[in-house]
Write a structure and sequence with these properties.
By secondary structure, this protein is α+β, with helices and mostly antiparallel strands. The chain is built from 3 helices and 9 strands; from the N terminus they run ββαβββββαββα. Strand 1 (about 1-5) and strand 2 (about 10-15) form a beta hairpin. The chain is elongated and about 140 Å long. The relative contact order is 0.11.
Length: about 250
């Protein structure tokens, strides 16, 4: 079985291949996220504590947290679940996919471990050297968290600490640094103020237009009522005139 051992403080990772089942017996029947003492692997691992992060079996099926078995099972999954990407599927479509349970067994070919506690001796290529981070965070709040900054500090000065320099095929030297996301600058504040003023002006304009429309509607209704009353008065006058003419006419 291969063991992928990672040590996050240095950023290093090392692969060990162990065929002796007596050394691996400490990991058997342990679940994902369980902690195991590293002394079982040898004297050089004395004092180390490993945390099981996952693994794969000989056919390449990954371990899934929450599946309490040491065999392979077929689960009905929806897009977004671990072990099912779901790209190109229909909305709401589910598929039955094979996954390995979260309990370590002899069927695994790779087991991923993370050092939780460092032991007495240094492990060559793992704890004795430090690899710099190739890429740092891009979001402004995460850069502040990484360098323990306040909101008054300028985040743009600290991105240069993990700026990468490289040379192109033509021989030109270039340097790259991540573009800071969600960075609040005077320009963004100005845009925000402009959008707020446009929104406010739009609301005021719509209110004034609604008031003008209501005023015009009231005026039109008043004119309509006046025209109707005038037409009714004319009809009433004509009716009265016709009745009076009939009464005034001499009987034959």
């Amino acid at each position: 079985m291969k063991l992928n051992i990672a040590y996050p403080p240095t950023g290093c990772q090392k692969k060990l291949e162990i065929d002796d089942d007596s050394k691996l017996r400490a990991f058997f029947d342990k679940r994902v996220a369980a902690e195991v003492e590293g002394e079982a692997l040898g004297e050089e691992f004395k004092g180390y504590i490993f945390k099981i992060m996952g693994g794969q079996d000989k056919q390449g099926f990954a371990m899934k947290q929450g599946v309490l078995t040491n065999t392979r099972v077929r689960l009905l999954m929806s897009p977004g679940d671990q072990g099912f990407r779901g790209y190109g599927r229909r909305d709401g479509e589910r598929r039955r996919k094979s996954v390995r349970g979260c309990i370590v067994s002899t069927d695994l070919s790779v087991l991923n471990l993370v050092i939780v506690k460092k032991g007495e001796q240094e492990l060559p290529g793992l704890t004795d050297e430090e690899k710099p981070r190739m890429r740092g965070p891009k979001r402004a709040s995460k850069i502040r968290k990484l360098f323990n900054l306040t909101k008054d500090d300028d985040v743009r000065k600290y991105v240069n600490t993990y700026r990468r320099s490289f040379e192109t095929k033509a021989g030109k030297k270039h340097s790259k640094a991540p573009k800071i996301q969600r960075l609040i600058t005077p320009l963004t504040l100005q845009r925000k103020r402009r959008l707020a003023s446009l929104k406010k002006a739009g609301l005021e304009k719509s209110k004034s237009q609604a008031a003008d429309y209501h005023k015009l509607l009231v005026q039109r209704l008043k004119e309509q009522r006046e025209r109707r009353s005038e037409s009714l008065a004319k009809k009433r006058a004509l009716r009265q005139a016709s009745v009076a003419s009939k009464d005034a006419a001499p009987a034959k």
